[in-house]
Amino acid sequence: MSTSTDSTADAAAMDPAVPVPDAAPQQPKQMLRERLAGLRGGDLGSLPVVVGLVVIVIVFQSLNSTFLNSFNLVNLCLQIAAVGIIATGVTLVLLLGEIDLSVGSVSGLAAAILAVLNVNEGYSPVVSLLAAALGGLVIGTIHGLVFTKLGVPSFIVTLAGLLVWQGAQLQVLGSQGTINLPPSGGLQQFGRFSYLADWQAYGLAVVLPVLFLAAKLATRTRRTRAGLPVGALWVPVAQALLLLAVLLAVVAKLSIDRGVPWIFVVFVAILSLIEYVLRRTRYGRAIFAVGGNIEAARRAGIKVDALRTSVFAIASMLAAVGGTVAAMRLGFANQSSGAADTLINAIAAAVIGGTSLFGGRSRMYSALLGALVIGAIANGLDLLNLSSALRYIITGTVLLLAVVIDALASRGRRSAGR
Amino acid sequence: MSADVLSTEPHTPPVGTTLLSLTGIQKRFGAVRALSDVDFEVRAGEVVALIGDNGAGKSTLVKVMSGAGPADEGSYRIEDREVSIHTPAAASAHGVATVFQDLAICDNLDVVANLFLGRELTRGVALDEAEMERRTVELLEQLSVKLPSVRIPMASLSGGQRQSVAIVRALLGSPKVVLLDEPTAALGVAQTAQVLNLVERLRERGLGVVLISHNMADVMAVADRAVVLRLGRVAGRFAMADVSREQLVATITGADTNVVSERAARVAGRSAATSAGTEGTQA
Ligand SMILES: Nc1ncnc2c1ncn2[C@@H]1O[C@H](COP(=O)(O)OP(=O)(O)OP(=O)(O)O)[C@@H](O)[C@H]1O
Ligand SMILES: [Mg+2]
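A: This is the predicted complex of the input protein with magnesium ion.
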């Protein structure tokens, strides 16, 4: 118990309804109790996704024993990087309670810009990449301005964008159907053939849990200094050890084959940065606030329009970055880059990972979890040589399932009086 | 923001000084005279109830004070200085905080985040969660507001707790006057008591509180004075010590004989008859 709570300690002993300072949810028992209360209240946490992922893995592994081998898992990491980056941007827009239907087209346009600048115009890979990302930023700013200044619903703005930017993509590509990135050039090299060296991979697997623990301990120290209750020390230690075990296992498994792909590292790095911004900065707090109650956010002095515009800008930029990553991995950009199921996969990944369509709620690292689910399904069906017809049907069904769970959880929150 | 948000007593004027005074307030909406020639004042350490029937002009007057809907005419003084308050921001800069009926709370965020929304404390770029939580706990404790935890989403709090958090949030800016628009309208008995306790604590801290309410019981319980509005004019001013509930109701409705008093008389007559009957049988 903290010093600041001592004054009420006596009263609390007599009156069970004085739990103000019992604010430490870190006590394992209480954590468990709140967890159970949460489950009853319709808050399922990441449980359905993790269970779903396990089921998917079991099913595909039993249908085709190569599913879980190192070669295929490295492929999976390569495959989900692009859609994961796009889904990260979608998460931000969904948090506002809005939607961006143009991310597929924007990613395709970015791929076209990258290829044309690098291959046709001879710009360096870095310049071409920056130009593509900047293009996304400009596009997103336009979406945001039309949405906030003219009051057009985001659904319509980005639906128009879906068509407009796909047209722009065709225009940029011109008469060429497909532009191949040079195999020796940096772009394809990075997307397809760059993997962490063993020392880098194992280094990260050790350093990340250490950083995690250090951050937890720093928070703990600050809370103690502020006189706030802290939980048992073994909890963050156990979490860090678990993280270490998982990362070491993943690295060991992937290292049997080519190793950890750089583009996968880029995806996780971008996602981590966004997670930090969302949960640890004023900007992120403002995004949650706008998604929760826009009027409250406005009255609290948050510049709602500027914030929403910036979120659309970031989302389109991430879509563009995802598009370039896809082009680098495939080694080309063409008229169908970013087409087909890119949009649906990105939105599905965000929602399946635990970002609510109703705004203001998102689980940690939802884009990663969701991209793994979507990626595993696509990958597993590929291994079975099943048509994309079946893939579309299954992905669509899984998306619907995720949305249903989201809607039920939201209804559960309401009926639990929240 | 100062370390002890609520311990800024030196700035608070002594009890009884006039904090806010309005004189000759006029407000029209087209042909409707929503307020005509209204005088109103709030002193330090008192709770003023602002009562009146639907459409009497209570909310309009609160909007004048909160800057959300400035008056057409009249003077607005804060501690004897003439001020011009045309925006909510100007009102809060002059120490007038408002808790509107729709609480403007983010249900998805926790208590700490809601209290500090728009004025979060940071260390570098990162939010200083520990410090914000410390101050939240301290603040809630000072005002004896009891919550299950300051780290649960607002959505899981009761109506009374939410209202309390909204009021506490209004206090973060160290206001001198707090305007509460129907703070107990949607609350049950126990939760109403919670909020009224909080209102009393604000008074103890030397704040001036304006309480809009339709609930005579609340008004009688907590207010020091009552100002009755009727059809945009002040129909009466009372010290709660020497006014009855019937007098207030009569002033609100503006007649000696009306639906309410007739009914009251009828009920009184009936209960007198019943008790007489009871006595009769007993005897
Ligand atoms: N924005 C507006 N435009 C036109 N007329 C208005 C406006 N706001 C208030 N009025 C009128 O002004 C008068 C006073 O309204 P006000 O909302 O202040 O009443 P009130 O005392 O708050 O009533 P209630 O108890 O129903 O909330 C009413 O006749 C109302 O119709
Ligand atoms: Mg009103």
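Residues 259-282 of chain B form the longest helix (24 residues). The domain at 3-108+172-243 of chain B is CATH 3.40.50.300 (Rossmann fold).
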